[in-house]
Structures are given as C-alpha cells and as structure tokens.
Amino acid sequence: MIEFRHVAKTYEDGTVAVGDLSLVAPSGEITVLVGSSGCGKTTLLRMVNRLVSPTSGQVLIDDTDVADRNAVELRRSIGYVMQNSGLLPHRTVVDNIATVPVLRGTPVAEARERALELMTTVGLDPAQARRYPWQLSGGQQQRVGVARGLASDPNILLMDEPFGAVDPIVRADLQRELVRLQAELHKTILFVTHDIAEAIALGDRIVILATGGRIAQQGTPTEIMTEPADDFVAQFLGLDSGRALRVDGQLVVDQTGRPVGRLT
Amino acid sequence: MNYLVQAWQWLLDPANASGPNGIGARTLEHLSYTLVATAIACLVGIPVGYAIGHAHRGRTVVVASTGAARALPTLGVVTLFGLAFGIGLTAPMVAFVLLALPSVLAGAYSGIEGVPADVVDAARAMGMTEWQILVRVEVPLGLPLLLGGIRSSALQVLATATLAAYVGAGGLGRFLFLGLKTQNYPMMLAASIVVVGLAIGAELTFELVDRLARRGLPTGRAGLASSVVGT
C-alpha cells in the first residue's frame, strides 16, 4: 500500500506542483493518476521512489515513511517504467532487463537467465536478447522497459506514461498485456497518464487530478462515469461530448450520429 | 626539389639515424614528450571534466578558461616559463599540458553532458548510486567524445613539441633550431617530414582505436554523433 499523507511540492521557482494531497493506493491494485500536464501527477509518482522530495507531508509504503529509507535501496525495491523506456543504449536488451538484479548482487549469469524468462512474460522473442535498444521498435522498447521494471520482482511498480509514445494500435496491445500480467502478478501499480481512455482501460481505481495537484475525484471507473463529481470531471471524461453516446439500431453513435461501436 | 632530395638523403644517412643526437633518439624524445603531456592533461582534465559533466555545474568557468588557454601562443608560454624555470624540460612541458588540457576537458565534459537526460534519470530510478551512474552509464556513453578530445590534444602537442628544443630540451625540434642557425635546410626539412609522418601515424592509430570503441554502439541516439571536440 502506498499512502500520500498531506504531501505538497513547491519547486524552487515557486511553481506549486502539488498543493496538499492525501491519497491511498491499495496493494495489488492499479491506481491510475490522470490529469492534464501541470497537474503534478508525475511529481507525485516520483515522490514514491524519492526522485522528488515533498516540500511537506509524507509518503508511506506499508506504513514506513520513504524518507526514512535509503534512497538507493528504496529505488532498487521498486519497479519503474518511463515514457521513452530510458533503456541504456550501450547495453543489450538482456543486460538492460538484468540491471536491477545485478545492482542488488545477483550473479550476472543468473540475472540474465531470469531476464530471458521475463522477455517471454512481456511478449518479447528471447531471440532478441542480444540486440541493442535502438534496434527495436518503440513498442518492443516499452516491453523491455516493463520487463526491466519487473526484473527484481518488486511489490510496487511505478509507471510514468509508459505507453504514451507508441502508436494507438501498439498502445492498446500493451494495455491488454499489462492487464493480463497484473492478473497473474498482483502488483501494487501506480500508473500516470493524461489519457482518460487509458485510465478507464487499466485502472482499478482512478484519481482525476486538477491543476496544482488537487484531487477532482477518485473512485472506480464505474463510479466516476456514473457520478462525475463536477463539471471539470465530466468535461475531462468527455461526458459532455465524446462519451455522450446513444444506441441507433445495432450501432452505438455519438452526439453527431457518427458510429463509435456496435452492440453485440 | 633539390632540398627534398637532400633531406631524403639526410634521413637515410646511417650517421644521422643513431646515437644520442640521432633521429631515432630525438623521435623517441619527441613522442615521449607528447605522451607525457597528453597523459598529464588526461589526469587533470578527465576527472575535472567528468565532475562538471555529471554535476552540470561550473561549465561556464571552464568554457571561459579553456577558451583563454586555447588563445595562448605556445611559443610565448614556453618563453615565459623558460624565464621562470630556466633551460630544460619543465617550461615546455607546462606549455604542452596547457595546450592539451582544453580539448581533453571539453571531450570529457561534453561526452557526459551529451548523455540523454532520460537515460540518466532511468539509471537513477533503477537505484544506481551517483558513482554507478557515472561509471556504468555516463563514462561508456561519453567515451567517443572523450577519445575525440584526447586525439585532438595529442595531435596538437605532437605538432607543437618541436618547441621544446627552443629552451634546449631536445625532441625533433632540435634539428629545426640547429638547422635554422647553421642554414642546414635539408636537415630542417627532414625533421619536419618526420614530425608530419608521426602526426599521420598518430591520426591513423586514433582512428583505429575510435572504431574499436564505437563497435556495437548506437549511431543515431544518445549524443554519440561523430563530432570531434576541440578541433
């Protein structure tokens, strides 16, 4: 369980990224932080592994304040997946995946063996183990990023817009994979995105953030869709336009009558 | 043309080749000055450059001071330090290190600075210590630029090390200054040919090392463009 207790972050230039926010991300669930740029979602995520220190307040993992833990040890115990994969360009795929276990002292041969297994888990062909990141497609790089995040079998996985830079078809593919993986692994996942559709597709719980790190609404996708807290949330969900759907025969159409889906 | 033939004959004359004042000994001297000056520049420049590149601080000071150092006329520096330290190797060596330092420093810090921010960020998020980020990520990725800087330094010193003889410290410049005084132009030309030959040989060696260091590295990403620093 990850708990934010009255956290605030003001950057040196006076920008308030997060005002005063309290939030619980329950164990074994995907909690999605969603909001437009400048809502402090990435700042919140990075507080968990101490890449950012809150100006005030506490971040707790299983009731231990992360500030009391050694930053390096803490980061090695938490999986991290970022937007542009952040893979080390001078290391092969298998060595990239094995990074954290090797840092934690696992013998290289053993870490590589486990990395090969993980490649299969995230849907990569182990034949690509000896390639370099730049030889892979964007989608494959993100899969490697996910495998690296999982390599030391962490309880917590932080994902910062991990599928933001790939095309829509690959993104949908990666989202399905993540749901499948989570059904097996039951990690505590904190997932940041600006894409509400992605939030709804992945989140057990969704936290909608407004500018300045204020929580506009949180709840399950169904709760949020059924009862949007205010106009901001309704607009963010697209309930006033894109998602205001009606049924026309077998087709589901939007307000302007354009088909968006079919009843089956 | 006549001088060129005479210079060639001078080079091939066994009497000029060996002995403490022969071409062989002077060439070795010349090479060792280059090697020592470049090595000292590396010992000073690489740690300082890495510190600046990693911390992203102090860059302005270094750019300004290396810019100034580059503008120094080496002959002037040799003379100046020659007056202070007297005849011998100290003055030219100080001048050569000053000559070599800017390129090494620039190669070291620009190599580190050129590593994409998201790669460093990811390494930190994985739980690498600052030292591990430097040694396992920034240094290997910055290596091509560092090698470019060292290469440029070594070639500059190699070409300038003839000035050591100006304060009586030997090297291939000995033949140049001696030839100038005795109007032995074939000897001057011969020594120049040797210096040019050494420079070309060094350039080829660095090219080889550079290619080996680049093997398997990405060409498009990570700031590993083939630009040579400091030329």
What is the gist of this entry?
The complex is a heterodimer of chains A (264) and B (231). Chain A is α/β, with parallel strands linked by helices and 264 residues long. Helices cover 34% and strands 26% of the residues of chain A.
How would the blueprint of this fold be written?
The complex is a heterodimer of chains A (264) and B (231).
Chain A: E1 2-10, E2 16-25, E3 30-34, H1 41-48, E4 56-61, E5 64-65, H2 71-76, E6 78-81, H3 93-97, H4 99-103, H5 108-121, H6 138-150, E7 156-160, H7 168-185, E8 188-193, H8 196-202, E9 205-210, E10 214-219, H9 221-226, H10 231-237, E11 246-248, E12 251-253, E13 259-262
Parallel strand pairs in A: 3-8, 3-9, 6-7, 7-8
Antiparallel strand pairs in A: 1-2, 1-4, 4-5, 9-10, 11-12, 12-13
Chain B: H1 2-12, H2 14-17, H3 23-55, H4 59-71, H5 74-85, H6 90-113, H7 117-126, H8 130-160, H9 173-182, H10 185-214
Helix pairs in contact in B: 1-10, 3-6, 3-8, 4-6, 5-6, 6-8, 7-8, 8-10, 9-10
Classified by CATH, the class of chain B is Mainly Alpha
Proportion of residues in extended strands of chain B = under 5%
Considering the protein shown, what is the CATH homologous superfamily of chain A? P-loop containing nucleotide triphosphate hydrolases
Report the strand count of chain B.
0
Cα end-to-end separation of chain B? 32 Å
Cα end-to-end separation of chain A = 38 Å
Spatially, the strands of the biggest sheet of chain A line up as 6-7-8-3-9-10
